[in-house]
What we know:
Layout: E1 4-8, H1 9-12, H2 19-26, E2 34-36, E3 54-55, H3 63-69, H4 76-88, H5 92-103, E4 106-110, H6 119-130
Parallel strand pairs: 1-4, 2-3, 2-4
Helix pairs in contact: 3-4, 4-6
Amino acid sequence: MGQIRLVRVYEATEGHPRHDEVAAIASGSDSPSVFLVDRVWPRGVSKGSLPFDEWVKDVAPTTDLRKWFGHDPDKFGEFSERYRAELDDGGAAARAIVAAAKDRDIVLLYSAKDEEHNQAVVLRQWINDKR
Length: 131
């Protein structure tokens, strides 16, 4: 079982601290291993500057849930429950990430400022529960 790393998009872009680490994983033989898990492309980031294998929009929370949550830490508990329910009802994209995490290390890229209260935190726990 591989490790699941969470990395902010803005730390993984070219010229930033974790770019080389993420780029090495993205270019490895075990692709896909680096997944962008935001529904909306991160503001101010060009596609060429971000090392990733797949942008899995369908794994991100629905627009309605994302807007309801609004990154309010007080809503995180309920957000987590609702998002996990969406993931349970999800399709092939969610299953593909679970399958990848069984075999190798993966990276989940996200753009939220709050490193403790975001969809990638919930997604990592959900993946761990499924594998």
